[in-house]
Design brief:
The chain is an all-alpha fold. It has a single domain, classed as 434 Repressor (Amino-terminal Domain) (Orthogonal Bundle). The protein has 9 helices and no strands. Helix 3 crosses helix 4. The mean pLDDT is about 90.
Length: about 130
């Protein structure tokens, strides 16, 4: 991490690192979510109303051109949320230096919802948290 951080003193190196991490991170996570669910690229394509070739591009780290709308649609197909936000370079380095398959997998809402419990569901329904 130290070498990478030292290279980031150059603004072009920082930008290149961010672009590469965003492209590869998204591609790898889309593939991880798809395989977590046991889907083929064709299965995901059918859910998105697109082609298998389009899914192949989304899973290709060198493609790097999905729009926010496409990512929102992918999130909807997987029944997960999309979060996009700005972070510091140090935080990005910390979060991307070592990523496991388990960190890329996300449970769909219905599976996760079964695990959520509230102390008082009636208070929550009335807006009292």
């Amino acid at each position: 991490m130290e070498k990478t951080f030292r290279r980031m003193k150059n603004p072009k190196a920082r930008q290149a690192y961010v672009e590469a991490e965003v492209a590869s991170g998204l591609a790898h996570q889309i593939r991880a979510l798809r395989t977590q669910r046991g889907w083929t690229q064709k299965d995901l394509a059918d859910k998105l109303g697109t082609t298998q070739a389009a899914i192949s591009r989304l899973e290709d780290p060198s493609y790097g051109r999905p729009s926010i709308k496409t990512l929102l649609d992918v999130g909807a197909a997987f029944d997960v949320a999309l979060q996009v936000r700005f972070v510091s370079f140090v935080r990005l380095l910390q979060e991307t230096r070592s990523v496991s398959r388990e960190q890329l997998e996300v449970e769909p809402f219905e599976v996760e919802a079964e695990k959520v419990r509230f102390r008082d569901d009636t208070a929550l329904a009335l807006g009292k948290e």
